[in-house]
């Protein structure tokens, strides 16, 4: 599941004109790739938690019935989960951009 998340958000970075960063799990990388792998793993786990939170909010919304307080609480849960997923997607693209910039440097055509 983590691989699906990483492939999804690394393709967002590629769509923005960035080079795709290869994530290795062999453990034979340098410190930068190890830190990159740890951060992306943490983002993947957080995305799974946010997805579970989104499903939980949807279940509460469906089972709320006519209870306005339960509907409001479930909408807050769904909103929070979606905001979390958006923040994680943006941070994943930003991390990929930073790793690309640090690994190959910026080329200026001024």
Number of helices: 3
Could you say which structural class the secondary elements and strand pairing correspond to?
mainly alpha
- Contiguous uncertain segments of 5+ residues: none
How many structural domains in the coordinates? Answer: 1
Oligomer: single chain
Tell me the series of helices and strands, N- to C-terminal: HHH
Summarize the structure.
The chain has 110 residues and is mostly helical.
In words, what does this structure look like?
With 110 residues, the chain is an all-alpha fold. It has one domain (2-104). 75% of the residues lie in helices and 0% in strands. It has helices at residues 2-15, 31-62, 68-104. The longest helix is centred in the C-terminal third of the chain and has 37 residues, at 68-104. It is elongated, with a radius of gyration of 18 Å. The relative contact order is 0.17.
